[in-house]
Amino acid sequence: MPAVIDIDQLSVKLGRREILHSISCRLGASGEGKAIGLLGPNGAGKSTLIQTLLGFHLPSAGRASILGFDCHKQSREVKARIGYMPETDSFIANMTAVAFLRLMGEISGLPAEAALEKAHETLFHVGLGEARYRTIGTYSLGMKQMAKLAQAIIHGPELVILDEPTNGLDPAARKRMLKLIREMKESHRMNVILCSHLLRDVEETCDEVVILKDGVVVHQSDLEAERKMNRRFVELEVQGDDSSLAQALAGAGASGVCEGGGRWRIVLPADVEIGQLWQVAASERLLVRKLSHRRDSLEEIFLKAVGHLRATPGEAGQAKTEVTVNGRL
Amino acid sequence: MAVYKRGYQRYQGPRTSHLSRIMVMPRFSWQRLMGMKITIVVLAVSMVWPLMCAAFIYVANHAELWQGMGGDMVRFLNINGRFFEVFMNTQAVFAMILAAVAGPGLIAPDLANNALPLYFSRPLTRGDYIISRLLVLLGMLSLVTMIPALLLFVMQVGLAGWGWLADHWIYAWGVFGGFALWIAIVSLVAMACSAYVKWRVIAGALVLAFFTILAGAASIMNAVFRVDWGRAVNPALAMNQIWRSMLDMEPLEGPGAWACSMVLVLMGLTLLAALTRKLRPVEVVK
Fold it and tell me: What is this structure's pTM?
């Protein structure tokens, strides 16, 4: 099965400026129903990358393909399989939502009757059912975002590209938008590319993440794998004499670092379950005040990737275990 | 099942052909234009002259109605190249007005509402977009040009017989080809104005101004340089020269039909290039 996105040494120039510098990555390799987050600071080249994938810009070198089709040479095949929700307001103001969606559906290749049916169906799906006969120009910002999402999915694309979908949404609408995005990949098996400045949105919805900075890929990771890996890092806070806890942990097969004040950072090997920590704490007569998974949040990964953080806390924790003696720093 | 109960499902059915997708936009645009009062008024007014011409053909083919009238009247009531030329000149003006009314609403709203990324992220190229918009005007302007002209021709054939057709078939080609050229030029002007000016009223005025300004420029060139080739720059005069050639009539003084054709083709290509340049899914700041 071809990867959702396969980029090989892609460079894009706008005028004389090179915006993307020979980037390569392979995303969504494991098939359908994948959500890929595209992150980066302003001017990193996210929008240029999306627009190149959509065939709006010509690559100056390299190639990019979506679902196995070359974005430039097989543009028509690519566009037949994708839905695009732009960041800025894009619609036909004096059209009703139903007419607008029907037009978009028909241009995407739906027969007239099916397009009308899908227009109603999709508008109900995104929560605009009651307002579907209003002209889009009269919609609020949140409703316009939903209408943009609706036009992107009316034709049932294999890949949906969402550019800042939660921009300008209130918390309830944002929650609804994220729920719809999760449904798109989980229930409808669509692949999603989510370009957002809101790291939490990406963290909540995406399986993979790519971070761009100054036109190059500075980080690419499988969030699911990272989440699994992060489950092995535990933060423990105890009350009592914890001087022999390091040895007790070692006896249970785990290793821990005391950070002072009863706070411990523990790395669990694959065969040690978290329940054993409770047993160790009980045997040491310690009162457990806090036990939580340590995780490298996407924010930490992002800050490290763009150069504002030397290492993520998870990595720091790993490094510390190598240089401690008797569990003390 | 009611649509609100059904829930969203991905469409998995058959897809339409590329040609059908191109025809979607004209269909929606025609619906919108036919809902505008001003379009209906212009269409209605532009039908007056064809009806008068139809009456003229009827009278010209019924000798009993004008028996006893003088030789001048007999010469006047003759369906020839001159008749079709006058018809075309009149309807060309209505075509221009209709283009000024219908044209600005085609591209300007898409640009104002940033709708181009939505079109171009679908299997639709810039060429397809231009063709689909041209088809809107082609269909609309044909209603007041080609279609009544060909109906008049058919009416004349019906009344005068097959013998008249054998001798004058070139008029059918003349009105069809001549109007096709005029529609192409007027449509490109209207679309270019629509692409560069977001305000519909101003874009409409600019369509009319384009022809007026070029006519004025042509007269000034002729007067200043004491030449007559300036006429080729005036689209209306250049087109008239081409029509006369197609209708097998004596050419007017000035540049010939071929020279006028070249100038109009050049003008059309320039307008097309200007239009293509403006129609980009994203603004690129270089």
Answer: 0.81
